[in-house]
Amino acid sequence: MTRLNELRDNPGANKTRVRVGRGIGSGVGKTGGRGGKGQTARSGVAINGFEGGQMPLHMRMPKRGFNVPNPKDWNQVRIDRIQAYIDSGKLDAKAVIDAEALVAARVIRRAKDGVRLMGSEGFTAKKVTFKVDYATKGALAAIEAAGGKVELIPAKQPWKKAPRAQ
User: Fold this and answer.
1) Alpha-carbon distances of 115 from 59, 81, 95, 100, rounded to whole Å
2) For 12, left (φ over 0), alpha (ψ -120 to 50), or beta?
């Protein structure tokens, strides 16, 4: 049994800190382990990818793909979730179901750039009319099989000019 006056840390548990730049005899004197002069001898060095003035590798590589400058942010809603809201009475199946109706029923938080219907199973409501921006093939097939219909809102195309008045 150990006594209180015999308690010790495990060997090597507490290392003594190396005091850098305290003379030649310490082994880390003069430059303090930082080598000679230059950028890396200074504090605050941030040279990720810097190649000494040569064009860095990530800038030499070719660019790939295309990034849309202003992408659309859609509300993606599964049709089985809409069915659950219809069954609970929060959505009226007789009215047209559009973004405003989905927000009012709290299916979605806010109408972003439009609504996309997803999924292909779990929809049984009869004669439901949707007015949305997009619907997958499976969602269209499931809704039409149940006797409903989907009206797609035509997309706005800002790059196309309006036809001239004659």
Assistant:
1) 39, 14, 17, 10
2) left
Pairing of strands 149-152, 129-132: parallel
Interhelix angle 137-145/79-88, rounded to 10 degrees, is 40
Work out whether strand 134-135 and strand 115-118 pair parallel, antiparallel, or are unpaired: parallel
Q: What does each C-alpha distance from 120 to 74, 115, 138, 143 come to in angstroms? A: 19, 16, 4, 8
Q: Model-level pTM?
A: 0.56
Would you write out the chain's pLDDT as a tens digit for each of its 166 residues?
889 999 999 999 999 999 999 999 999 999 999 988 988 888 887 788 888 889 999 999 998 888 888 888 999 999 999 999 999 999 998 999 999 999 999 999 999 999 999 998 888 888 899 999 999 999 999 999 999 999 999 887 766 677 777 6
Residue 97: how many other CB atoms lie within 10 Å: 27
Q: Is 127 in contact with 88 (CB distance < 8 Å)?
A: no
Strands (E), 51-114: 75-78
